[in-house]
Amino acid sequence: QVQLVESGGGLVQAGGSLRLSCAASGNIFGMNIMTWYRQAPGKQRELVASVTSGGLTNYVDPVKGRFTISRDNAKNTVYLQMNSLKPEDTAVYYCNIVQRGRDYWGKGTLVTVSS
Fold first, then answer.
1. What percent of the chain has pLDDT over 90?
2. Residues 6 or more apart from 43 whose CB is under 8 A from it?
3. What pLDDT, in 10s, does the model give residues 79-106?
4. SS3 for 32-56, per residue?
5. Neighbouring C-alpha atoms within 13 Å toward the C-beta of 88
6. N or C: which end of the chain has fewer CB within 10 A?
7. Which of 27, 33, 47 is nearest to 91 (CA)?
8. Residue 53 falls in which region: left (phi positive, over 0), alpha (psi -120 to 50) or beta
């Protein structure tokens, strides 16, 4: 049983910053990948950034240099620091964890960037 709870979304002007958090609880094992996805209105869900339990990170090109993913393994929490936000970053952001061949999802947190 795994639960993921996102927080930190909100309304921000273009150029501003937000930090998203995702706290995982339940049966969390040592080897896993935690990932942030997002889904904009009318679009498919897309991967944003991921981090392994060993700290290796990956980003999609649109957010490279602006977003930073990190994790605190002691707290089973993953963060997404979002700087220089653009209107096209507007989406519901979802936290995901993959471990032992299974996926778990949070309910999402809404980020709205105004121009």
1. 96
2. 91
3. 999 999 999 999 999 999 999 999 999 9
4. CEEEEEEECCCCCCEEEEEEECCCC
5. 4
6. N
7. 47
8. alpha
